[in-house]
Amino acid sequence: MRQERLIQLSPSSLSLYLECPKCFWLYKEKGIHRPKQTFALQNNFDAILKKYFDKFREMNKIPPELNGKIEGELFKNQELLNKWRNALNPALIYKHPEYNFMLVGGIDDCLFDGEYYIPIDFKTTGSNNFHFNSERYYQHQLDIYNFLLESNGYKTKKIAYLVYYKPEEVIANGVIQFQIAVKKMGTSDERAKKLFEEGIKTLQGPAPKSHSECQYCSWGNENI
């Protein structure tokens, strides 16, 4: 008998669920995407930040802007971290014990403190208020990262860090100067599991109603 394919849910797809359950259902069940937005610059900057942090990892140091603002040190196992970063071929996986679903995620970086692992997530922003709605928008993402680490045998402190980089000005030779802020956030495995279960339940049922504030999904009503 052919084994049924596992359906992957991730922080990004569950972000879509939180924004609009119908858009989430259309995406996962029908392959109907929202109009794509361009995040090339942000994705490139994430890659640059990872290389920047990797250079300090090689020197057994942390970037100076994080001194006194974080617990632990940069996780030293570069090979394993690279696997954890890979969202397309994920190494951090949780398979649901009953249903044909798995939760996956790729982290930006990780700290190590004694025997505990602490995820770091990079954020670029143009807002003057670094922490504006950060819990609302990113809490579930950090919950999932810690839950995945725990599910794969890595102890966590139930905390994670958001590291914000906000471009301030261009100085000599085209160098961009950034303002940096670090926010420590508590996490919950229970919230991560609950959100995962909600996403599964939504996909096992009929198409949800259009969200009253969603500008994308109402157009699909005639065909769903």
From TrEMBL:
InterPro entries: PDDEXK-like_dom_sf, PDDEXK_AddAB-type
A Pfam family that the UniProt record links to this protein: PDDEXK_1
Top-level taxon of the source organism: Bacteria
PD-(D/E)XK endonuclease-like domain location: 8-219
Protein name, UniProt field: PD-(D/E)XK endonuclease-like domain-containing protein
